[in-house]
Here is the input.
Amino acid sequence: MTGRVAGKVVLISGGAQGMGASHAQLLAREGANVVIGDLKHEQGRELARAISAGGSGRAIYVPLDVTVETDWQSAYNTTMLAFGRLDVLVNNAGIAPQHGPLDQLPLEKWNLVLGINLTGAFLGIKHAVPHMRHGGGGSIINICSSAAIVGYAGVPAYTASKGGLRALTKQVANEYAKDLIRANAIFPGLIATPMNDGSAPERMKMLEEKVPFGKRRGRPEEVSQCVLHLASDESSFTTGGEFVIDGGFTSQ
Ligand SMILES: NC(=O)c1ccc[n+]([C@@H]2O[C@H](COP(=O)([O-])OP(=O)(O)OC[C@H]3O[C@@H](n4cnc5c(N)ncnc54)[C@H](O)[C@@H]3O)[C@@H](O)[C@H]2O)c1
Here is the structure.
């Protein structure tokens, strides 16, 4: 352990699997106390147990549906009881259903995606700020997507939710700079997680072929390294920033 985030307290939404789980493992290994919030209770508890038992950091699990405001309040109450402060929030929970064309999209399906990916992050930030301010500052890391940079057919709600989160990041960075709270956005491209594991192999191959760097999906750890940097004091003057991790896809 090199302790790049030693003693920091980090809450990761959607941290039970995929990229969130990878962030939890790396941050704990680097000395953070990690709070994993998710809907997948068994998986989240098991991950927290494994991290703590591995001797490479401490982690706890809290049940968290990011769309439920009282869940956020309880998650932060538990965080305070366990660790006494909050330094970092990673708004990572998200869903990415393929919807097809916008003109055929039922309102409920639009609202579901916006509710989790954008409103969920809003609620997380809303209730994190007082704790971070009290602690003298903090770092908010919003996981957006390359879909907030270029347009993909078939995912209108996902695109709007990530574009909204991108803009919200800059708003939050400006609003809370005076409180020494930083806010940055990460834009992963195609990353190998359960989110896209179920996709047809031919489709995945076709998408990977479009990635200039290595013609492959990214690994969750390649995104976690950026999360680690933004969570640490190494990024002490970095706020309102945008970090693209997509093997060059959106540079084309
Ligand atoms: N995988 C990719 O290619 C990719 C690309 C760009 C952006 N992203 C974004 O990265 C983030 C993580 O994605 P992933 O690929 O690890 O996905 P994943 O599906 O593997 O994990 C997402 C996690 O979020 C949790 N979650 C879903 N709804 C929730 C809710 N209402 N409350 C709390 N937790 C909830 C899930 O239970 C799951 O554990 C998402 O925001 C996603 O949009 C993923």
